Amino acid sequence: MRAFAELLDRLSLTASRNAKLTLVRDYLRETPDPDRGWALAALTGDLTFDAAKPAFIRKAVEERMDPLLFRWSHDYVGDLAETVALVWPARPGANREPELSEVIDALRGATRAEVQRLIEGWLDAMQPTGRWALLKLMTGGLRVGVSSRLAKQAAADLGGVAINEVEEVWHALHPPYEDLFAWLEGRSDRPRPDSPGRFRPTMLAQAIDEAVDFGKLDPADYGAEWKWDGIRVQAVNEEGIRRLYTRNGDDISKTFPDVLEVLDFEGALDGELLVMGDDGVASFGDLQQRLNRKTVDAKLMARHPAGIRAYDLLAEAGEDTRTLSFRERRVRLEAFVGRLATPRIDLSPLQPFETWAELAALRAAPPPGDPQIAEGLMLKRWDSIYEAGRPKGPWFKWKRDPFLIDAVLMYAQRGHGKRSSFYSDYTFGVWTEVEGKRALTPVGKAYFGFTDEELKQIDKFVRDNTLERFGPVRSVKAEPHFGLVFEVAFEGLQRSTRHKSGVAMRFPRIHRIRWDKPAGEADELDTLERMLEQMEGR
Amino acid sequence: MIKPESLLRPTPAGLYCPPGDFYIDPTRPVDRAVVTHGHSDHARSGHGAVLATPETLAIMAERYGADFAAATEAAPYGRTVRRDEVEVTLVPAGHVLGSAQAVVQWKGLTMVVSGDYKRRRDPTCPPFEPVPCDVFITEATFGLPVFRHPPDSGEIARLLRSVAQFPERSHLVGAYALGKAQRVICLLREAGWDKTIYVHGTLERLNRLYQDHGIDLGPLAPATVATKQDFAGAIVIGPPSALQDRWSRRFPDPVQAFASGWMQVRARARQRGTELPLVISDHADWDELTATVDELRPGELWITHGREEALARWAQLHGIQARALALVGYDDDEEDG
Fold first, then answer.
1. CB of B314 less than 8 A from some CB of A
2. 3-class secondary structure, B172
3. 20 to 30 Å CA-CA from B279: which of A10, A202, A366, B296?
């Protein structure tokens, strides 16, 4: 358990993705079965406990120490698990530290009352970092900044295989994954992925380079459809096993019981998960209300009913259709969706076109209705098979041009890792009237879109023009006659009650730095309001 | 029985001893001072006469110049010095090189001013010496039960493991310039790290002073001349403030480490952007504070600075009369810890 605790400790303070991968991969390499498998399950979210409620932990510690000293400690540290891990007054004669697998085995066979005694005994035997990790595990939430995809990537790195290969077998495996590690370490064959209800690694598109690609591509080779603005999902029903996966293979079935209910078919669909209202597809903001929830209530489902707009057919009645061409799959998909009785699964319609210019016109001016909020267009080669990953050539995404505004830098925050000596996270604002005076109101925050050289220049500007410091944040001089203007690109706008300006940007980034532009000539909040009304009035 | 306040009393300038007419670690210039150790919040320049250990006087001269006080008197550990009616003896505090507790005796009353101290082994200074006393005047920088410093060998092992794990990156270790930096270097040597350790310019003079006092720091080099590539796989030590400054940009994708007792609390590490917190402290942790009080069982416990209320509470629960002096002017921030 000590190695696992050390791993979680490091992960919780590591920002860089590469460093996280190294930490997890090294742990998996150096830790024997079955401990590493349980650890992997804990990281991917396939192993969760709610063995200990915070109230129990508090009670256990207060039985051992002065409650007032505990309260002061808790006030100082903030986090309950961390406080208890640090202050825990161990009783003498404790056993040796348990291994992760011992913890898991013991919990499996224990009653509720026994569980609490077990936890106290383990806390006695462990060091603060171990206690912290144990309490995080027991209270069901590691929150160390590792996604299930990153953990799987680290496992794939261990074996030198592509992550798709791990993802495809993942749902046929069970913790502690001894068969997975045997394969990754070359000691056995790859586990068979063909269990019903499994996830199939997603095919992704390359961004098109307009200047280069169109000259080489023949419009007759490609079909086109809208790129819908929801989340990409895979919906499976095989032998009665119904599953809804994200494009990374995370199982989100529990969050969308309403979608699961309408999967009355035998096969696997690739599509876009959308909130489908009476008057068409709702915006991404509505879908966000439904994401990342462990449980859902009927009211929420009624207010934001979810459905699937189908792109592709991956399996039908036990047959793997991924090796068929897109043209053949499309014919099969149309028939497949046509047979379904539910309006909650529909077809993403193909957009006929003869020339690239014709398609460009469509992209520039989408017709009224749902296409108004599409992210852009997808191009798919008629003769391409469904291939995991992001192969170059068969699929292209052609996003709509981003929205652009000019905004003024207001606050800068120090970055993390490589950027920890740079002010690299920028909050920017636009002009508005506040009590009869023209003032800036923050409308977003961005931390990329500039080169390393530009970062140095902005960092210098921030240091030279600091007004105030608040911990890692500096406020920067921003007046009509002096300030730094960013041309900010973003994908969309939503109304927001959390932001003072009342709007929130989607995917904002720095598009250009306007050293030349006077701050007073940056955009007004009214401009954003008008954009928002346009988007809503589609 | 004489009241302890007749011998030592808190004043705005620090602890004052009327029958000996001197202050201990005064925070403003005074005529006569006893200085427990060389950290700048305890050892200030501009006093009339300073009594301290020879090592502490050397540190003050290095930091402030030879004329930091009008007169100085060196009192080696264990030698008793008279100040008017009062006898003063400096005994090891185990905090940094030259650090001492001041044992103050007058008319059969013994009061011990701990200065800053710790109880665990430190290769750069002799260990804390417990002195039985009527009143023990302790610091309480880490006077909360959450501060329980792990063995420093384990912390150094974590640093070396990270160096092995990320050979393409450099490891920047923030460490206070007096004491912590040299202790971390010694601990690295003990753990078998015999490569050159790179140091920030502000550490060089104090490193030399430690070496002159017979403390072997092994091969050191300034962290200035090499090209970026040379620092891959290297350990670099600098003052905490330099880590977040532009100085740190010369290193390839550095892992930011910080050696401090404050690193026990995750939020502190996160706030500073510290990727590898090393809980290595020159102060007593909660267990050391309470064990020391328990060992001495003084008639009264006075607490100078830090988290006084928690330690006072603990003492009261254990039948020891405690009093928080709430002295101001002693840094309670993360630069020193």
1. yes
2. strand
3. B296
